[in-house]
Specification:
The protein is mainly α and 301 residues long. The protein contains seven helices and no strands. Helix 3 packs antiparallel against helix 6 and helix 4 packs parallel to helix 6. The chain starts with a helix and ends with a helix.
């Protein structure tokens, strides 16, 4: 079976494998390329983000370590000044229930709060004591002020360490969330890749189905043309046979006419009949010739 050039074009041209389906495959390939590029970008960005987070966590932990070391020193100093106050109390032989010790505790209280927080009676008492402190009270107050400074710094460092530790925990939670999002994005990419492969498979299947249908159609059309060609050839052969037969009859009649003309030259009626027969045969021959021409024209078409 021969496939005409125009049929080849309909199979391998734009209809089946032309620009439209090629564009679809190109778009699929382009999408896959973009997804891969985006995935690389996301991975690169994620790696840089992870590195920055690692550096931030390292800085927070470094700060916590520094504050812990500093607090150890501050605590030692704070305790040292408390011991100095205890030694002074022992050296000056001050009892806990003595008025001197009670006045010292009041002076410590005034140091820790603003004067506006004191009552009028407390302010009067403070005014009486501040310029009349004993040597024990003066030494103890000097030590107390330094110890309070260490204590405040200890408390400030402790709050900062809590904040630094909270930052580290928040970064850990953010990483867990980010990892979950990355996992979801990976799952999404896998689904899209699977869908892309499925679409390509569908395109190939559709193209194969269309090719099979087109091939079957071309085969049927070729078979029909062969049948028509055979019918035309049979018609031509039949017409040729009829023409040959008519020519033979005409020749035979012509011969007989000549014989009759020689034998019956005076019979007008016989000649008239013979002419009619000859005219009929000639007319039939012309009809056969016209029919044969029509068949040839159809073949050319």
């Amino acid at each position: 079976m021969k496939i005409l050039q125009q049929d080849k074009g309909s199979i391998f041209g734009n209809t089946l494998f032309g620009t439209k389906d090629m564009d679809v495959r190109d778009r699929i390939a382009q999408k896959n390329h973009l997804y891969r590029k985006e995935a690389l970008h996301v991975r690169s960005t994620a790696n840089k983000g992870e590195q920055r987070l690692d550096k931030t966590v390292e800085d927070h932990r470094g700060r916590i370590s520094y504050l812990m070391e500093e607090n150890e020193k501050l605590l030692d100093s704070y305790q040292a000044y408390n011991r100095k106050m205890d030694q002074a109390k022992a050296e000056y032989d001050i009892k806990d229930d003595s008025q001197e010790q009670d006045d010292l505790e009041f002076l410590k209280k005034v140091h820790d709060v603003p004067l506006s927080a004191l009552s009028e009676e407390e302010r009067d008492r403070y005014e009486q004591l501040k310029d009349h402190m004993t040597d024990y009270q003066k030494f103890s107050m000097d030590c107390y002020k330094v110890a309070v400074g260490y204590k405040k710094q200890l408390e400030s460092n402790q709050r900062e360490m809590i904040a630094e530790a909270a930052s580290v925990r928040l970064i850990g939670l953010a990483r867990l969330k980010q990892h979950a999002m990355v996992d979801a994005e990976t799952a999404k990419e896998n689904i899209l890749n699977s869908a892309s492969k499925e679409v390509q498979g569908m395109l190939v299947s559709q193209a194969q189905e269309t090719l099979d249908q087109k091939t079957e159609q071309i085969k049927e059309e070729a078979d029909q043309r062969e049948e028509k060609q055979e019918e035309r050839e049979e018609h031509i052969e039949d017409a040729k046979d009829r023409q040959t037969e008519a020519q033979a009859i005409a020749k035979e009649i012509h011969t007989k006419v000549e014989e009759l003309s020689e034998q019956v030259t005076d019979s007008g009626q016989v000649m008239q009949d013979v002419k009619q027969v000859v005219q009929k045969v000639i007319q039939e021959q012309k009809l056969l010739e016209e029919e044969l021409k029509g068949v040839m024209i159809n073949l050319n078409v």
